[in-house]
Amino acid sequence: MPQVIPLxxxxxxxxxxVREGVFRSRRILNGTPCTPGNFSLQIGNxxxxxxxxxxxxxxxxxxxxxxxxxxxxxxxxxxxxxxYFPEGTHYGPQTGNSHSATLVLQFGGASxxxxxxxxxxxxxxxxxxxxxxxxxxxxxxxxxxGGKINKDAYEAVWEQVNRxxxxxxxERYLRPVFMxxxxxxxxxxxxxxxxxxxLMGEFSExxxxxxxxxxxxxxxLHLDENSIYFVARGSGSxxxxxxxxxxxxxxxxxxxxxxxxFLEIGEHARATATEETEILHIRLPRFD
Length: 288
Description:
Elements: E1 3-5, E2 13-14, E3 20-30, E4 39-51, E5 59-66, E6 69-70, E7 76-77, E8 82-85, E9 94-96, E10 101-107, H1 118-129, E11 132-135, E12 138-142, E13 148-152, H2 153-162, E14 177-179, E15 187-188, E16 195-203, E17 208-215, E18 220-223, E19 227-233, E20 236-240, E21 260-263, E22 269-273, E23 277-283
Helix pairs in contact: 1-2
């Protein structure tokens, strides 16, 4: 059964993190820990934030909802923009000096390096804090001789979890990919009256896909398996193909603005709009 998650059902919590500044988030959805396809989906609210130039061994997709977020020479994200940050690719430094809200999906990339769970992250951060300090996105540990060892903060956390050095995947992309959806045209979807799409791109040999859909009132969209759908605006209902029953129930819309719909491998559903609706679709990579 597909999961339908209204944003108001997810609490806003200020969380511990290894960068600089204040980070509040709504943790919407997590994948399966200790698998190559593990992921974390959240909306981050950051009145202040700083991270040095760095890279990861996982992929990221960011969709800017409110405010601006600066990535130095890589570009700036403004409301409505979206970006793909590939594993192994350096980006930043990253700066936010005023209120912003960003949908952030972090997930295991094509290399199969996976993604550590929030619980693993928080436990390792607490363990590292006993023997060193985090400042401006860098972890510093004192050596017995009084010297210092500096390391990227996330890299230090990953190594604490996995008990081995982090080996970064080679760069498939030399820079992150910043996209402005307003400069793409809506293309009618064949066989789907009232449905248009804007394909942002398909990335890596694992076919990660980023796409927007627009639905006219009463138009229906088939939802793919192994996918996350985030409602940018609008409302409607979701119907699972195997039950032919609306998931929302009680005659109420199954989704509204900022609702997330998640379908695992083998699941299929249909979304029907009650008003003009725009939906972001992210198809996750497959490792089976």
